[in-house]
Write a structure and sequence with these properties.
Two copies of one chain form a homodimer. With about 120 residues, chain A is mainly α. Chain A contains six helices and three strands. The first copy, chain A, has a single domain, classed as Winged helix-like DNA-binding domain superfamily/Winged helix DNA-binding domain (Arc Repressor Mutant, subunit A, Orthogonal Bundle), CATH 1.10.10. In chain A, about 70% of the residues lie in helices and about 10% in strands. Chain A has a three-stranded antiparallel β-sheet. Chains A and B meet through helix 1, helix 2, helix 3 and helix 6 of A and helix 1, helix 2, helix 3 and helix 6 of B. Chain A binds a DNA duplex (20 and 20 nucleotides) through helix 4.
Chain lengths: ~120, ~120
DNA sequence: CTGCATCCAGGCGGATACTG
DNA sequence: CAGTATCCGCCTGGATGCAG
């Protein structure tokens, strides 16, 4: 790829997707939007995510200013995560996406079945 | 991961993200929404995507029923891609995401700078 | 409990060469 | 022009082990 004659919008979208577009980030934001405040292992259990990915994801989200980390230097240690203002505003577009998903997942599944059936027909033809 | 006690929503979101959540799919949809109809190499140049990924992405989008492929068996061959009804409806949540991105990318950049500065302070301290 | 470091497999994605 | 096939590097992401 030497070419870079794309629309500027694509760059923007690419940027935002590479920031908060990965599935774990989205899921963490959703979880926090439901529970207000969650601890590390609560999130881990809730999402079924590995420690590593949760750790990485939370660090990035904190770095991006979407999530606030509150650390209690007790023993054993306790860390709470919650959404920042911006994090909460992110729920809106995510919710839009979620609703679209709910509306269209069935249709997509149908389309896939149809497509796959046609493909296997082509093979047997 | 043996655990699977997550919220059902997470599964849904995960599904939709793994379907149309990758950056190339989103960018293809956006391009098609702007240009109505595009040929293979037009998309390729427009997005700065490799043939391989464009080919895979278009096939998936067609399979999911978001993109319609029109093939003219001429020489040289000509193939046009356009959004289906569902593909067009997908623009809505994507647009919401794009607007949020425009509004918040600057803030995110600021947050990152601040975070990184604090991190390097911690190192030098 | 909350993390970080390491290792390792699998998939994403680009470059290249080839077909129709 | 519109793809397919192959090779291969890179990054994601899980498993494990260790530290505070």
């Amino acid at each position: 790829m030497v070419e870079t004659a794309q629309c500027p919008d694509c760059k923007r979208i690419n940027e935002v997707l590479s920031r908060v577009g990965d599935r774990w980030s989205v899921l963490v934001v959703i979880s926090l939007s439901q529970y207000e405040t969650l601890r590390f292992n609560e999130l881990k259990r809730h999402l079924g995510i590995s420690q590593r990915m949760l750790s990485l994801t939370l660090r990035e989200l904190e770095r991006d200013g979407l999530v606030q980390r509150k650390h209690y230097p007790t023993i054993p240690p306790k860390v709470e995560y919650r959404l920042t203002k911006m994090g909460q505003s992110f729920r809106e577009p995510v919710k839009a996406l979620g609703l679209w998903a709910l509306d269209n997942l069935g249709t997509i599944d149908k389309a896939r079945e149809k497509y796959d059936a046609a493909a296997s027909d082509a093979v047997s033809a």
